[in-house]
């Protein structure tokens, strides 16, 4: 069961999100808060698996909350759900260590799947944000995370992309859910500063990022 806390200053948004998530058999909403300070205290007390946090909160901001949890309760994975898609917000959130950044234009199904992915440790970025980050990193190479920022599992996914596997085939071979694989692929594209699987494969071959570099193959743990 994925235990979640919702932090948003709009009661209607909190209650609507709680109802949406509570319909799922594997997700439980264990608490709600309307301010950043209350959100921190609630998360420290309940230690949920995932905290859904808005950026714009009265008092302590959502990013301030994420920073507090990163130092005091790092086991709580923060999924930002915000109307703001400004690069500065996203960059700061990723620098803090949030595990996901989703726009409020996302569908209910996307939110549910993102909660599951974040709970599994997958970095989730809204598709619009991923595309914007990729363009920015492509235009400014110094700001691009690059292949060194890839996790072992992302490298494993990249290896299989190079071998021509589909997301479904990657999911089967690595023993992961399809949504989890999609999240890893998005992470690979964003970190390499590319916008498609084809570009990721070309980048990998050009820079020799395949398993032949010394990896024992796709990470499965």
CATH topology of the largest domain: Rossmann fold
Strand content: 5-15%
Binned, the helix content reads 40-55%
What is the fourth-level CATH superfamily of the largest domain? Response regulator
Q: Which outline best applies?
A: globular
The name of the CATH architecture of the largest domain is 3-Layer(aba) Sandwich
Helix/strand/pairing category: alpha/beta
How many separate domains make up the residues?
2
So how many helices? 10
CATH class of the largest domain: Alpha Beta
Largest sheet at a glance?
Answer: 6 strands, parallel
Stretches with pLDDT under 50, minimum 5 residues: 212-221
Radius of gyration: 18 Å
Largest sheet, spatial ordering of strands? 2-1-3-4-5-6
Indicate the mean pLDDT: 85
The total beta strand count reads 6
Description:
The chain is of the alpha/beta class and 221 residues long. The chain has 2 domains: 2-125, 3-Layer(aba) Sandwich (Rossmann fold), CATH 3.40.50.2300; 140-213, Arc Repressor Mutant, subunit A (Orthogonal Bundle), CATH 1.10.10.10. 51% of the residues lie in helices and 13% in strands. The protein has a 6-stranded parallel sheet, sandwiched between helices. Strand 5, helix 5 and strand 6 (124-125) form a beta-alpha-beta unit. Helix 3 runs parallel beside helix 4 and helix 7 (152-162) packs across helix 10. The chain starts with a strand and ends in a 15-residue tail after the last helix.
């Amino acid at each position: 069961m994925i235990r979640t806390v919702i932090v948003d200053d709009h009661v209607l948004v909190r209650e609507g999100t709680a109802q949406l998530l509570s319909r799922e058999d594997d997700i439980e909403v264990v608490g709600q808060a309307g301010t950043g300070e209350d959100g921190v205290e609630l998360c420290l007390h309940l230690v949920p698996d995932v905290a859904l946090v808005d950026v714009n909160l009265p008092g302590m901001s959502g990013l301030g909350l994420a920073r507090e949890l990163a130092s005091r309760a790092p086991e709580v994975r923060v999924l930002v759900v915000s109307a703001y898609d400004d690069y500065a917000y996203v960059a700061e959130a990723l620098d803090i260590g949030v595990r996901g950044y989703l726009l409020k234009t996302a569908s209910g199904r996307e939110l549910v799947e993102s909660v599951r992915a974040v709970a599994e440790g997958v970095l989730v970025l809204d598709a619009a944000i991923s595309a914007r980050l990729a363009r920015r990193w492509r235009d400014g190479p110094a700001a691009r995370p690059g292949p060194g920022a890839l996790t072992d599992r992302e490298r494993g996914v990249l290896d299989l992309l190079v071998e021509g596997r589909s997301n479904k085939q990657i999911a089967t071979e690595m023993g992961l859910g399809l949504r989890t694989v999609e999240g890893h692929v998005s992470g690979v594209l964003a970190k390499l500063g590319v916008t498609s699987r084809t570009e990721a494969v070309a980048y990998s071959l050009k820079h020799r990022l395949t398993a032949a570099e010394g990896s024992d193959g796709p990470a499965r743990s």
